[in-house]
Specification:
Layout (H helix, E strand, L loop, with lengths): L10 H26 L5 H30 L11 H31 L4 E3 L3 E3 L7 H35 L12
Antiparallel strand pairs: 1-2
Helix pairs in contact: 1-2, 2-3, 3-4
Bound molecules: protoporphyrin IX containing FE.
Length: 180
């Protein structure tokens, strides 16, 4: 089924979820490798090109995901879950969506305030919406870093929740089954 059902995510939501997860972990590796290189190293500019393009793709995919969820609402969480578990899962989910948008925006601002061209896979340049500013460049570089690691912690919490229900509880609460 393409759309989301009452107790299972549809193909579109599942594809967007796992593709975003794959891109996110790839971006962590890419970002850390890039950050470890010297600014003068030509490999750094090459990795940054793929990093910014893939990051912007994550931004677009997240907007598409939110649009799709508005059209095809997600299956409600099982009623067998405790109230606090439902609240925590919802809060983590909302924060993850916000950060999947905010992390690429902070990355974009880091480059734009540095006066660097931002490109999307060599297809087209992304317009610079702000002028060069050395202080704001530094600020957004820090913001990007802090938001990335906050998102990483939320992803770990999100995975821990899914694994906990898969291992501990009986049938009907295996929330992972709804997404695979
Ligand atoms: C969800 C999307 C993204 C993720 C997960 C991500 C992840 C990362 C990570 C892990 C780092 C290294 C941080 C550290 O040193 O601890 C980094 C650095 C950076 N990212 Fe991203 N990023 C994303 C999107 C973007 C986008 C869209 C852009 C630009 C358009 C961007 C530009 C940068 C820049 C300029 C740096 C600093 C590199 C340096 O050390 O000079 N990022 N990112």
């Amino acid at each position: 089924m393409l759309t989301n059902g009452p107790d299972r995510y549809g193909v579109v939501s599942r594809a967007l979820h796992w593709f975003t997860a794959l891109l996110f972990f790839g971006m962590l590796v890419l970002g850390l490798t890039m950050a470890s290189l010297d600014d003068a190293d030509p490999l750094k500019a090459q990795l940054l090109f793929y990093h910014q393009s893939t990051g912007l793709l994550i931004f677009v995919l997240t907007l598409a995901r939110l649009g799709w969820l508005a059209f095809s609402p997600p299956p409600p969480l099982p009623e067998t879950l405790q109230q606090w578990e439902i609240l925590l899962a919802q809060a983590v989910r909302i924060l993850m969506y916000l950060l999947l948008l905010a992390v690429p925006v902070a990355g974009y601002l880091t480059l734009a305030y540095d006066g660097q061209d931002v490109r999307f896979f060599g297809l087209f340049p992304v317009p610079a919406l702000v002028g060069q500013d050395a202080v704001l460049h530094e600020v957004f570089e820090e913001v990007h870093e802090v938001l990335v690691w906050t998102l990483f912690l939320l992803v770990v919490l999100h995975i821990a929740g899914a694994v906990k229900h898969r291992l501990e509880l009986g049938p009907g609460v295996d929330v992972l089954r709804r997404m695979v």
